[in-house]
Design goal:
Layout (H helix, E strand, L loop, with lengths): L1 H5 L5 H12 L7 H5 L2 H20 L3 H24 L5 H15 L1 H4 L8 H18 L15 H14 L7 H17 L3 H21 L4 H24 L10 H21 L2
Helix pairs in contact: 2-5, 4-5, 9-11, 10-11, 12-13
């Protein structure tokens, strides 16, 4: 019966669970899959989440279904290993997130009023999560901020947590002053260890500036990465039209091509409907 399910193109979730179970079978499964554990699979989980985000950012809707499937497989993989260890099942995972969503949305699934602003709903959400953390004996303000998050995202979450208890600058003016201070400190140090520390301090304050301005630092840097990629590819294309590569050019010429690509982008934005 399991073979019929595995080859059923409409087998849905039960099919995927059975495929994962068979891959991990110690006698008939895939040697590579059998050798994996939570730690070895975790990097793939993070990678797949980023690939989902990348498809969305590129508006590659034709790719999104496959990327979401890859991410779903990661949950199935971790759950299969947990089930083998007698920890929990896939149904337990699904029920746990369902219980959490119901508990965190009393204005939808309970008797609370939906007549409140999005900002108030965010505050209510944070209060519910704070109660959940207390139930886990996470009593510190910064407890529960995952260490495995991307550094910029974790910095933002740490700062948001601290700000809720009043540990925050009152305006962007103080943050900008701190940026100047941290940049000067970075300029003054020569030891590599100290440079790393001061550079980290500068990045941390830059995240704080974004937070005060209502900007997501991860989103901002992703956008700049994309912009850099577009403009550098324009340089490569311009040189390729002459049968050359960047190695055949120099900084002065490439700077001029960069400025041309930048000007073209601005013109396109200006003329956009």
């Amino acid at each position: 019966m399991s073979d019929d399910l595995i080859h059923d193109p409409k087998g849905g979730m039960p099919r995927l669970l059975e495929i994962m179970r068979r891959l991990r079978d110690p006698e008939t499964g895939c040697p590579w899959d059998i050798e994996q554990d939570f730690v070895s699979i975790a990097p793939y989980t993070i990678e797949e989440a980023y690939e989902v985000a990348d498809a969305i950012e590129r508006e590659a809707w034709g790719e999104l279904k496959g990327e979401l499937g890859d991410l779903l497989l990661q949950s199935v993989y971790h759950t299969q290993m947990a089930e083998e260890a007698g920890m929990f099942s896939f149904d337990d995972v699904a029920n746990a997130i369902s219980d959490k969503m119901v508990a965190r949305h009393p204005h939808v699934f309970g008797d609370e009023s939906r007549d409140k602003s999005a900002e108030q709903q965010v505050l209510d959400w944070e209060q519910i999560k704070a109660a959940e953390r207390a139930g886990k004996q996470e009593t510190g303000v910064l407890d529960g901020v995952a260490k495995g998050l991307p550094a910029l995202t974790r910095a933002l979450k740490l700062q948001n947590r601290a700000a809720r208890v009043g540990f925050d600058w009152p305006s962007t003016d103080e943050v900008l002053d701190k940026i100047v201070e941290e940049a000067q400190e970075l300029r003054e140090v020569e030891n590599e260890t100290e440079q790393l520390e001061e550079f980290g301090d500068l990045l941390f304050v830059m995240v704080n500036l974004g937070r005060h301005m209502g900007l997501d630092p991860e989103a901002a840097l992703r956008a700049t990465n994309a912009k850099f990629t577009r403009r550098f590819e324009s340089i490569e294309a311009a040189l390729a039209a002459e049968g050359r590569t960047p190695k055949d050019s120099n900084l002065t010429e490439m700077d001029a091509l960069w400025d041309a690509a930048k000007a073209e982008e601005k013109a396109q934005k200006k003329n956009a409907p």
